[in-house]
User: Fold this.
Amino acid sequence: MKRIPVVDTSCIHAGTMSFAKYKKTIEVGDTAILLLGYDNMLQLMIEKDKIYQTKYGALRCNELIGTRYGRRVQCSKGWLYVLHATPELWTVTLPHRTQILYATDISMIVFQLDLKPGSVVIESGTGSGSLSHAILRSVAPSGYLHTFDFHAQRVEKARQEFEEHGLGHLVSVAERDTCKNGFGLECVADAVFLDLPGPWDVLPFAKQAFKAEGGRICSFSPCIEQVQRTCETLEKLGFTDIQSLECLARTFDVRTVNMPLANLGGGVDIGVEGDQSGSLHQPCIGHIEYDTGGRDAKNTKKRRGDGDTPDGSTEDGASKKWSDGGNGGDAGDGRTKMSESASFVFKTAHPPVQMPGHTGFLTFATLYPD
Ligand SMILES: C[S@@+](CC[C@H](N)C(=O)[O-])C[C@H]1O[C@@H](n2cnc3c(N)ncnc32)[C@H](O)[C@@H]1O
Assistant:
């Protein structure tokens, strides 16, 4: 039988590391990501003879060099994984020099700015370079990023990191106050991104920087007043399709819930064995456990959930079994009736009561050719 490859591995190669493509082997000079557990990652530089201390014990770079990314490494007190760096993993492990943008906003920015290989992008300010890495991967191998910040050390550090991450040839990092002096670029950009306290001052310069065929612009601002002022200026300058949005990531906790069954009188028909689609109502996302217990137990079908343990209790200790209070039984037609004390256990997903999520608003607009 012919096998169809699921993953295109043509971009996997050995050589200098790059955040824009994968390679197989860990080498000196690579920036690698250590996965120590859920939500626990670190980035480190692979250096000869270097030993890093982790919560699982010493990690010797010499033992990693020449081995494959993705491997599990045994340390004295536990194990961890060594992963190839990506812009997403960099965002959650990078050294913060400023507030940064996270994957939720970044994904929307890359999508809405229509970034693709070959795109030319202007960004201000560079900050910690979190967004810049994602832009660079999107525009590689033939695009370019011009990024600006007026803070000298941030500019220097970003430049160094882009080089270390194999992206230096795709980016220029300039120290410049873009609100006062603009970008010094005309007719080069397909897209412009602004993460500045006063983006409206830069918008006239941004307009000059677009290619003759126009392009897309995005401004990130934490306050709605900044958004309003940005929108007004965009409109005055002739930008169209102006749209502001907020990206909120919603997390849901999975819980096992034990809920008493409503007594509707006369027992509840739960259908025949082998026909569980009968008249039993499923009140929300999840699955229902059947077990009448007592004398009908052996005739009643039961579905097991993920949290099942061999003794029928759930992970959180709740009993999974239907309870019929001793009154349930065969209805005489092969169907089973449930009585008033019945309860059922199911899994459900629900959001936390409080969900902090606001980072800021993204305002997008289009500049069409004159
Ligand atoms: C919040 S940070 C940007 C974070 C970046 N988007 C990231 O994901 O890492 C804002 C940056 O804009 C820079 N900045 C503020 N005003 C500026 C201006 N007028 N010209 C250039 N850079 C400016 C600051 O120095 C700061 O580094």
Summary: The longest helix spans residues 152-164. Confidence is low (pLDDT under 50) at residues 1-15, 271-336. The longest strand covers residues 253-260. The pocket of S-adenosylmethionine is lined by residues 98-101, 124-125, 127-131, 148-151, 154, 177-179, 195-197 (CB under 6 Å).
